[in-house]
């Protein structure tokens, strides 16, 4: 009989916590997952999940006997020594990370004992030192997550690196955490706590910087007649640059990039250092979300009374996450210009409806396009590439598409009779009909 693996505790079963619990169970660990919301715990105990993440539901179902959900902190502490903290750290009004949920967890921990607190939540550098100062007997390890929504299960089970940060005296705890991840095969990087905390913020800030940079390049390409798709490919073939995150669009969003870029900027500012580059990254991203309005006005003139269809609402495909989604800003700006906005998303409709109450939610892409003066592709869901664009052209009042992700094939749109405009590409008009004999 194989030896049972060490139990794992997970505090907070949102997106990160639920993926963490499911994947450790898949690795054979008994998992105790705790959340403060009774309705969430009850639903998960019945096998119901309310987030969309490919592969997660199957993982939870397959490992249901290894995972228990509870609201009781004592049950968690009795059931596991290694405790992963996966609670939210949203931005405050100042832009700093809100650590109130992290602090609440620490206050509930028992003094003494041999528990190891493993911080997976994204926190500013210095958080671990502060917690250890308040609870000097606590073993503390920083283990930031690097999961991408839409591929989180795959990312967890096949990591490119695992960062394990621990200070002097916690080497044994760090060994235990590293041992949990060793079967996955990714490189395990051992650092001090502050460096581990900075690695997460610096990584996301750098990726956001690449996105804002290529968006700026796309805007210049439009002015000089270059094609940003070719420019990005030529840049990306340089191994020093790489192709990842060199896709222009209408701005980044989601739960990580906006929050972490802001948090790093504020962390620097609180030390007296002005992080000018990140100030520009944030500004570019906000302006990029609004450029679509100018593109529509170029084609349609005034948007008052115009019907604009938004295709996709989630901040990226394969998720229902609406946090900091570009669609939120775009819909509000279009309505501010007097447009009538209709939208469709294959997964995020219900979450979006709660945030966009005055936006009409269509039941399908074709329904959204019915009678529209223009369509804006906001999220690159695969079904939009497979849409019958010939039929769509006949349903719209004017066959105009602004491709906010450079996702659609311009040739397909043009052959269907559309005007097409992407990001950083030349405007393409459908060919005029042949003259009749």
CATH topology of the largest domain: Rossmann fold
Strand content: 5-15%
Q: Could you say what the CATH architecture of the largest domain is?
A: 3-Layer(aba) Sandwich
Indicate the low-confidence ranges by residue numbers: 432-437
Count of folded domains: 2
Instruction: Give a quick account of the main beta sheet: strands, pairing sense, barrel closure.
Output: 6 strands, parallel
Helix content: 40-55%
Overall average residue pLDDT: 94
Q: How many helical elements? A: 18
Distance between the termini: 84 Å
Shape field: globular
Structural class: alpha/beta
CATH top level assignment of the largest domain: Alpha Beta
Enumerate the strands of the largest sheet in spatial order, edge to edge or round the barrel: 3-2-1-4-5-6
Radius of gyration from the CA trace?
24 Å
Report the CATH superfamily of the largest domain. NAD(P)-binding Rossmann-like Domain
- The tally of strands reads 14
Written account of the structure:
With 437 residues, this protein is of the alpha/beta class. The protein folds into 2 domains: 8-191, Rossmann fold (3-Layer(aba) Sandwich); 192-437, 3-Layer(aba) Sandwich (Rossmann fold). The protein has 18 helices and 14 strands. It has helices at residues 15-26, 38-45, 56-62, 73-79, 100-108, 127-134, 152-157, 171-181, 193-224, 228-236, 257-270, 276-300, 326-336, 349-355, 365-369, 382-385, 389-395, 410-415; strands at residues 8-11, 31-34, 67-70, 82-85, 116-119, 139-142, 161-165, 187-191, 307-311, 340-344, 360-361, 374-377, 400-403, 419-421. The strands form 3 sheets. It has a 6-stranded parallel β-sheet with strand order 3-2-1-4-5-6, with helices on both faces. Strands 11-10-9-12-13-14 form a 6-stranded parallel β-sheet. Helix 1 crosses helix 3 (56-62), helix 9 (193-224) crosses helix 11 (257-270) and helix 12 crosses helix 13 (326-336). It is globular and about 70 Å long. The chain starts with 7 loop residues before the first strand and ends in a 16-residue tail after the last strand. The model is unreliable at 432-437 (pLDDT under 50).
């Amino acid at each position: 009989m194989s030896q049972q693996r060490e139990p794992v505790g997970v505090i907070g079963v949102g997106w990160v916590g639920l993926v963490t619990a499911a994947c450790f169970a898949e690795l054979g660990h008994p998992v105790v997952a705790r959340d403060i919301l009774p309705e969430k715990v009850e639903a998960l105990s019945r096998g119901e999940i309310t987030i969309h993440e490919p592969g997660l539901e199957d993982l939870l179902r397959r490992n249901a006997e290894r995972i228990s959900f509870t609201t009781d902190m004592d049950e968690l502490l009795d059931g596991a020594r290694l405790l992963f903290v996966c609670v939210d750290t949203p931005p405050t009004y100042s832009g700093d990370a809100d650590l109130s949920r992290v602090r609440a967890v620490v206050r509930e921990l028992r003094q003494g004992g041999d528990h190891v607190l493993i911080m997976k939540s994204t926190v500013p550098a210095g958080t671990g030192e502060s917690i250890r100062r308040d609870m000097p007997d606590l073993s503390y390890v920083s283990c930031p997550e690097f999961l991408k929504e839409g591929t989180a299960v795959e990312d967890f089970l096949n990591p490119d690196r695992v960062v394990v940060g621990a200070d002097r005296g916690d080497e044994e705890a760090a060994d235990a955490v590293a041992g949990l991840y060793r079967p996955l095969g990714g490189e395990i990087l051992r650092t001090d706590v502050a460096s581990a905390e900075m690695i997460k913020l610096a990584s996301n800030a750098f990726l956001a910087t690449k996105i804002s940079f290529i968006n700026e390049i796309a805007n210049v390409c439009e002015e000089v007649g270059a094609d940003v798709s070719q420019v990005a490919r030529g840049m990306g073939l340089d191994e020093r640059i790489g192709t990842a995150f060199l896709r222009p669009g209408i701005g980044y969003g989601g739960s990580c990039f906006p929050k972490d870029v802001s948090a790093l900027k504020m962390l620097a500012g609180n030390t007296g250092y002005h992080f000018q580059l990140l100030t520009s990254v944030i500004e570019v991203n906000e302006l990029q979300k609004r450029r679509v309005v100018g593109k529509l006005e170029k084609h349609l003139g005034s948007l008052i009374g115009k019907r604009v269809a938004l295709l996709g609402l989630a901040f990226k495909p394969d998720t229902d996450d609406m946090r900091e989604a570009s669609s939120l800003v775009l819909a509000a700006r279009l309505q501010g210009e007097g447009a009538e906005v209709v939208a469709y998303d294959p997964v995020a409709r219900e979450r979006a409806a709660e945030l966009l109450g005055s936006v009409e939610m269509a039941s399908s892409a074709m329904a959204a396009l019915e009678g529209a003066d223009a369509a804006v592709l906001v999220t690159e869901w695969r079904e939009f590439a497979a849409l019958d664009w010939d039929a769509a052209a006949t349903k719209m009042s004017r066959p105009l598409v602004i491709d906010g992700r450079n996702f659609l094939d311009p040739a397909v749109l043009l052959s269907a009779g559309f005007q097409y405009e992407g990001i950083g590409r030349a405007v393409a008009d459908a060919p005029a009909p042949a003259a009749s004999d």
